[in-house]
Every structure is written in structure tokens, then in C-alpha cells.
Design a protein that fits this description.
Layout: E1 7-8, E2 18-19, H1 23-47, H2 62-90, H3 106-121, E3 129-130, H4 134-163, H5 168-173, H6 175-180, H7 183-214, H8 222-225, E4 227-228
Antiparallel strand pairs: 1-3, 2-4
Helix pairs in contact: 1-2, 1-7, 2-4, 4-7
Length: 232
């Protein structure tokens, strides 16, 4: 992994556009966003089922399709997350900032304190960074990466209960029920972490749009094109 540090840019003057997000990172970002939406909707419907539908029960498979969509999307989410974690180490540029904030660097501590001060008191000229700023990188790790890992593990743990002994899911993830003590707590932690992801998504969207509008660098458009532009 390269460029774990935080590249603070000069506060004054115009800067040329910089290529920040490579193609694999951008593809993963939007696939990941779609997966979270599908998982949230189908997960809610699984936890709060729809009213019984009238008609021949042999021709109705509504909850079955909802469950299938949830399980299939969950596996896509897990594979994409694993691929993104691999790319964080194999890829260049700033791909690794998402998974491991460089808290051991002076650039992180100084930048984190400054970003917290900026959030509380505001500033007419917020700092500009290549890649993530220290506060954003740390927030993504705590509010997205950690809950995502727990959601994936608990999700496969619940699937292992359904598949039963002898299945590959039970051999690989059957220990999750033992870890939590019972299936109820396993389900509870899974749902709480999904709510944590939804809260992160809401904050992420609001803050990125606000930064794109009121800040001095592009954010939303950067995840579309890969290029970040800077305003003086």
C-alpha cells in the first residue's frame, strides 16, 4: 500500500486538477452503494414482513424472492468488499486510505485536530487535501469499514444456521453463533450494524454534497470521473 499519509495542499492559489480515484475504486464505490440500498430494503422487509397476500399460496413467492435478493446481494457486497480490501494493498494512489488511517503519522494527528476545530468553529478557507482528510478517513474506517466487516461475518453466520452442519458456510462461519452465545444476539448485532451503515450513508451524502457546494474542492464529481478540481 502506498501513500498512507495525508497530502495537505497549499491554502492559497489555484491548483491543477489531480487524478484521485482510479477505476476499480470508483466501480466498487457505486456497486457498494447499490448493495447497501438493496440490503437495507430487503433486510427491513425480512424483519418486518409484508401482510399476507391473497391468492393461491403455490403461486406466491414474495418473501422468497425478497430473501433471495437479500442473500444474493449480501454475497455480492462481501465479495466486492474483499476485492476492495485487496485493491487497497495492491493498488496505487490513495486506494489504501479507506481501510487504514495513518494514525501513527504526524500528518494525521495535526490534520485530525484541525478538521475537528474546523467542524466546531468553522473557517472561511477550509484546508484542501489530495485523497481523504484525516477526520474523514478515520470516520469512514470506524463508521463504515468496521460495521461492514461485522455485517458480513454475522450475515454468513446466520446463513450457516440455515444451511446446517456439513455445509461450507457452517464450517467457515458456524463459530459466529458460538461467539455471540445465541442466534438472537447474532441477529441483533447484524441489524444494528446495518443501521450504523445507513446512518453513515446519510451523513456521508450530506457532508459530500456540502463540501462540493461550499468547499474548495470537488467531491461528488470526483467519484464519477476520478479527477479532483480545486477552487482558490
Amino acid at each position: 500500500m502506498r501513500r498512507r499519509g495525508y497530502a495537505r495542499l497549499p491554502d492559497e492559489g489555484e491548483l491543477p486538477s489531480a487524478y484521485i480515484h482510479d477505476v476499480p475504486s470508483r466501480i466498487w464505490h457505486w456497486v457498494n452503494a447499490l448493495c447497501i440500498v438493496v440490503l437495507a430494503v430487503t433486510g427491513y422487509l425480512i424483519g418486518t414482513p409484508l401482510p399476507s397476500a391473497a391468492g393461491d399460496t403455490s403461486s406466491l413467492y414474495v418473501m422468497g424472492w425478497i430473501r433471495f435478493a437479500h442473500l444474493a446481494t449480501g454475497q455480492v457486497f462481501a465479495v466486492a468488499f474483499l476485492a476492495r480490501a485487496t485493491w487497497a494493498w495492491a493498488g496505487g494512489g490513495y486506494a489504501g486510505q479507506l481501510f487504514l488511517p495513518a494514525i501513527w503519522r504526524r500528518s494525521w494527528s495535526d490534520g485530525f485536530v484541525e478538521q475537528c476545530r474546523l467542524a466546531v468553529f468553522g473557517s472561511p478557507r477550509p484546508p484542501r487535501y489530495l485523497g481523504l482528510n484525516p477526520a474523514a478517513g478515520s470516520a469512514i474506517f470506524v463508521l463504515f469499514v468496521v460495521p461492514a466487516v461485522i455485517v458480513i461475518l454475522t450475515g454468513f453466520g446466520m446463513l450457516a444456521e440455515v444451511k446446517g452442519h456439513g455445509s461450507w458456510t457452517h464450517l467457515a462461519f458456524g463459530w459466529m453463533t458460538t461467539l455471540f452465545g445465541n442466534t438472537l444476539d447474532l441477529h441483533l448485532v447484524h441489524r444494528l450494524c446495518l443501521w450504523a451503515l445507513l446512518c453513515f450513508v446519510a451523513m456521508h451524502v450530506v457532508m459530500m454534497v456540502d463540501e462540493d457546494v461550499t468547499g474548495r474542492q470537488s467531491v461528488v464529481s470526483t467519484m464519477l470521473s476520478g479527477w479532483r478540481s480545486f477552487r482558490p
